[in-house]
């Protein structure tokens, strides 16, 4: 099920099927790390961690520290950072190195996590990460180049942030020869393990962007409902161009939005974007969080882009299928899914639940970015209905297996490298705590193959394991 694009622009997008269905970490950490008591039996977190402890402050996941520190015996740097399950949480913690600086939360809260003059931690950072979800996504991605994000659609709490291949920040936390060797090897690795792909890498989102286009069309009133017939030829010729976009199946001709989402009809959404115009489409995309260069969680997030001024008519049509100059991080696409699940509202994502100082005081989270209503509740509800009707097109067990509160969409989009591309998956479901949760997965270096459905399977498989961990 895919659309073909023929012509000078040479853009290929395939399989966008959609559906709406519904760590174990050792607590020890290091010689100076403090072990928290586990979560209570009802799933709530304990908050009785000591407010002060020797060494560097800790980053906690599920109330257990995943960092620690050890004494170096040196006056200038008396403590060196240690990590528990470093590779699993590297995209969350970042790194702290006496020789190579800090990154991630280690940098954003460097002052809080530092030791004070007496050698005690200045404070601790409690993350929002769900260790079960984090491990499920990490294990499912394996060593492939990719990323996965999960967030609470109502609160914005990030429940999983995974980037692979990963690295162990403990291997270069000091300043010795072994640390320098590990640092050089990571920087020389062509797979870029130090890059946080979940937050810092953008790519063409392909057919997952259809959700934004459909939302814009409903908001503008191009169609009164997702069941209205569209005026969409099976083969659509882009304006002022000879490039053709052909629907994935005969059913894509004049397909209503609900059917077009189910069948991954690029012809429908390319024409829809052209009918909307670049300005209208960009306006709605920005309400979903695109073109926001100030988003922090508090780690700085790369800007996801919907083309701004001067977009040509053929480029506007390509925008409708998540190609051309559209670029998105996995976090951005997770926020799109979250908005559909949250009645059309976009909330600020955050990695941090609370920051506690040694004196018992609290530090406000350092997050920023656009929030508010992306689309009306009526539009969000219509999208949910459309995605719900298409559940069997994406998930291996169909909508009945996953539950009535889940929606999902998958896509494969070329990246122009030797016929390979990226498999994408976005979804939302009802979380274990009663809140809707949204996920996004991107797996790179995937061949298109003869069957585009199979091309997206790697991302779908990761997404299904992540959804299961969250449910």
From TrEMBL:
Q: Penicillin-binding protein transpeptidase domain: which residues?
A: 146-458
Record's superkingdom?
Answer: Bacteria
The secretion signal range is 1-22
The family database entries (Pfam families) matched by this protein are listed as: PBP_dimer_2, Transpeptidase
Q: What keywords sit in the KW lines? A: Signal
Segments for region (Disordered)? 26-79
What InterPro entries would the database entry show? Answer: Beta-lactam/transpept, Beta-lactam/transpept-like, PBPA_dimer, PCN-bd_Tpept
Q: Where is the Penicillin binding protein A dimerisation domain?
A: 57-132
Q: Which PROSITE patterns match?
A: PROKAR_LIPOPROTEIN
For this protein, the record's PANTHER family field holds:
PENICILLIN-BINDING PROTEIN 4B, PEPTIDOGLYCAN D,D-TRANSPEPTIDASE
Name recorded for this polypeptide: Penicillin-binding transpeptidase domain-containing protein
Q: Which organism is it from?
A: Streptomyces ossamyceticus
């Amino acid at each position: 099920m895919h659309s073909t694009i023929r012509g000078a622009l040479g853009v290929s997008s395939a399989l966008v099927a959609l559906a709406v269905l519904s760590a174990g970490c050792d607590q020890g950490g290091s010689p100076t790390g403090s072990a928290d008591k586990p979560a209570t039996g009802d799933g709530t977190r304990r908050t009785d961690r000591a407010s002060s402890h020797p060494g560097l402050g800790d980053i906690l996941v599920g109330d257990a520290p995943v960092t620690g520190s050890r004494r170096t015996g040196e006056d200038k740097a008396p403590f060196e950072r240690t990590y528990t399950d470093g590779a699993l949480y590297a995209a969350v913690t970042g790194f702290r190195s006496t020789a190579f600086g800090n990154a991630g939360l280690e940098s954003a809260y460097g002052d809080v996590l530092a030791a004070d003059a007496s050698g005690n931690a200045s404070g601790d950072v409690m993350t929002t990460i769900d260790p079960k979800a984090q491990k499920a996504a990490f294990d499912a991605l394996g060593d492939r180049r990719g990323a996965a994000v999960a967030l609470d659609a109502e609160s914005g709490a990030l429940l999983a942030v995974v980037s692979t291949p990963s690295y162990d920040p403990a291997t270069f936390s000091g300043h010795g020869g072994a640390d320098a060797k590990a640092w050089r090897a990571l920087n020389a690795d062509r797979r870029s393990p130090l890059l946080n792909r979940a937050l810092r890498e953008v790519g063409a989102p392909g057919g997952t962007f259809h959700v934004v286009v459909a939302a814009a069309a409903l908001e503008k009133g191009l169609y009164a409902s997702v069941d209205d017939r569209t005026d969409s030829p099976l083969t659509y010729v882009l304006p002022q161009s000879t490039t053709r976009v052909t629907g994935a199946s005969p059913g894509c001709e004049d397909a209503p939005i609900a059917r077009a989402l189910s069948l991954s009809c690029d012809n429908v959404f390319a024409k829809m974007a052209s009918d909307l115009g670049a300005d209208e489409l960009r306006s709605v995309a920005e309400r979903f969080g695109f073109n926001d260069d100030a988003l922090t969680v508090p780690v700085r997030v790369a800007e996801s882009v919907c083309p701004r001024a001067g977009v040509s008519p053929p480029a506007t049509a390509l925008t409708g299928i998540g190609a051309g100059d559209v670029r998105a991080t996995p976090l951005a696409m997770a926020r799109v899914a979250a908005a559909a699940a949250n009645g059309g509202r976009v909330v600020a994502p955050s990695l941090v639940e609370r920051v506690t100082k040694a004196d018992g005081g609290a530090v406000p989270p350092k997050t920023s970015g656009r929030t508010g209503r992306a689309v009306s509740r009526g539009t969000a509800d219509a999208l949910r209905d459309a995605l719900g009707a298409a559940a069997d097109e994406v998930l291996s067990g169909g909508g009945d297996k996953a539950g009535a509160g889940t929606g999902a969409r998958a896509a494969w989009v070329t990246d122009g490298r030797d016929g390979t591309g990226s498999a994408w998956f976005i979804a939302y479901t009802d979380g274990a705590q009663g809140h809707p949760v949204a996920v996004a997965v991107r797996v790179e270096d995937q061949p298109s193959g003869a069957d585009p459905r199979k091309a997206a399977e790697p991302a779908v498989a990761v997404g299904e394991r992540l959804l299961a961990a969250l449910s």
